[in-house]
Amino acid sequence: MKLTDPAVKNAAPKEKQYTLYDSEGLFLLVMPNGSKLWRWKYRVGGVERRTSLGVYPKVSLRAARLERDRLQAELKRGVDPAIEKQALKAVERATGETFQLIAEEWHTKFRHTWTDNTALTIISRLQKDIFPYIGSRPIREITPPELLAVIRRIESRGAVETARRDLQKCGEIFRYALATGRAERDVAADLRGAIAPPKKRHFASIHEPKEIGELLRAIESYQGSPVTRCALKLAPLTFVRPGELRHAEWTELDLETGEWRIPGARMKMKEKHIVPLSRQALEVLHELQPLTGGGRYVFPGARSADRPMSENAVLAALRRMGYEKGEMTGHGFRSMASTILHEQGWPSDVVERQLAHGDRNKVRASYNFAQHLPERRRMMQAWADYLDSLHETHQGQSS
Prior knowledge:
Layout lengths: L4 H5 L8 E4 L4 E5 L5 E9 L2 E10 L4 H16 L4 H15 L3 H12 L5 H19 L9 H13 L3 H20 L29 H12 L5 H13 L3 H5 L6 E2 L4 E4 L10 E4 L2 H14 L20 H8 L11 H12 L4 H7 L7 H4 L7 H21 L1 H4 L1
Antiparallel strand pairs: 1-2, 2-3, 3-4, 5-6, 6-7
Helix pairs in contact: 4-5, 4-7, 5-6, 6-7, 8-16, 9-11, 14-16
């Protein structure tokens, strides 16, 4: 019995995929995830072959039958539909007009604008979440609903922020294709507002003076790796981002002048950044120098000195000291410093500059890496002295 439109529309997914047959080799494959795929089976030289005719409802029952009839006519003329499709795909790939090839070209062209970690994250997300679904599609044929279905897959697993960022990157790829004459518009722009905004994330942190003192004493008595202990000690004294801390290199440090100059390539805002080193920070570095000073990284990995410390090392150490996920994180040292320094009355421009939140004006930003430096030096030393006072003040009460 031939299929009907209601039968196709109402075909519900089951635990395993199943098939609904129409006629003359046309059938509908119903997948466990609800997808409905048109297929046509035929024979060439006595050998059964199959080819895809599209996805329902984008391709209706009537359209699938018309395509089957066209391919049957082609088959009678000696044209194998499977070989024809392979040839078309080869042409598309040769002209570089599939989404994946254009995305890879875009990634190669712009990767110098990102840190290595960011570049790797971008291509990894594309390979995992985007390419399997629309990577082989000609970019000019991709529709907004088709892209939205891909983004919804990411959103449905609870990764709302990842879905938002992947949609943003897809938009950049479409605009690149548009600029290079291989797409007619940015279909991602039609999806603005289609993804719910993520809940604002606040990194867990400690702000009460007594609790900060307890944390500092816990760090001082940490029984794990001495390299990790030094990282824990330096984190509140410099309040850089965790990735900037663990990738620190000895060549960036001037222990004579008391400066750590982080190159722009490793900064989130792509601007070089100066961290004035307090007397206490220099003491930590002098303690660490005999252990790791002969290598590249200030905080090398436990398994290889050629790689930086694991991104989970500081977080794992905090957990080992008894600080749960909702209490403190490696990023929380930044929140701690920001909150208290503002409360202490330090000028916001000085605090924000030291946090490397940057200046969004690209022209000004290129000259501002040393902005407020004298006052930042005074602030960083005063901050280190304040931490020392917290370390000592409640020590008797907690023992």
